[in-house]
Amino acid sequence: MPNVEIIAIGSELLLGETQDTNTFYLLRKLRDLGFDVFRTTLIGDNPKRIASTIQESLERSDIVITTGGLGPTVDDPTRDAVAMAFGCKTEFKEELWMDIRNYFDKMGRSVSENNIRQAYIPELAIAIPNPVGTAPAFYVYKDSKLVLSLPGVPAEMRYLIEHSGTDLLLKYFPTQDSILVKTLHTFGLGESVMDEFVGDLEKSSNPTLGLSAKQGIIDLRITAKGKTKAEAERLLNDFETEVRNRLGDNIFGVDDETLPEVVNRMITRNYVKLNVIEYGTGGAITKALSPSSIQTSSVQEMPDMSFSFRDHVQNIKSKMEIDSDSPLLICAIFPISDSFIRSEIYLRTNRKEEYAERNYNSLTFSVDQTVLSAFEMIRKAII
Questions:
Q1: pTM for this one?
Q2: Which of 5, 63, 67, 103 is the most buried (most CB within 10 A)?
């Protein structure tokens, strides 16, 4: 399986002025093609550093893809850097200059003399015409290694990958290899608890299992590699089955599914109508629920928590005229000190009553954490 490295070029990336969406796109594309990405790099507009980085990458990998630095200004260094990396010069290509001028003519714009820079590419390179922009791409194939240089403008980069780059990669590195990824989502277990369930599986080399955590959600990313797509699918499915056997109903969704989406589907499918009372949430839970799943909703300011939340719940229940079999969800968020915020949730169904409470650091707290906790309680209750 060929190894690939991606080098995103542009000082604006290092300054945080521009987000590097190109690398994200290429990672997905290369994975789907069956190429293994070894490393990604962000680097500024310095030709010598870029050249050195390309040379280092070629020592480790079969393919290097650069994005950016092909514009018309003096701080667009990729052409010179690639030439430097291969120990050659850049040369003017009349046909590229004609393409650039024709592009400007079609756009009804005047070409600048600065754009002539874009008609220069390394002597060893082969140009890739760019019908959607002014910056021609190019590639160098030498000693069974490939360097592919693409524009940094996302739309241009994506067009060229789809219409030229994919065929080029498969021409020099034909492969039937397949890489498949599936992400399983859990909520509320904690990383240490999760490690007890699947710690040994994290040592697997193929498929691999990676964990990431955010706001109580732990994602389990399964990556399977195979000589064919069928082999990768078999490996992934068998591994997923083992993970599901260990975690059971703790898994709430896969890939792009979110906890609110999953729970809203369950609520609709089971014809659930919730009575919701919120304190201090700004109505976040009501907003996250499908309107068809709400029977009544009340959003109020911070409650008087001079007495316990449980007493508060009992007081509410005694005053409300709600059928005892009707689901009732009460959530409250309130400060307990300058440094901590308390979140408390009550859920009553026709089978049981349940409380959940937790203290959060006020510097990092998000209402989304309470929303997710409430939805997880609903999910488990429906199950």
A1: 0.77
A2: 67
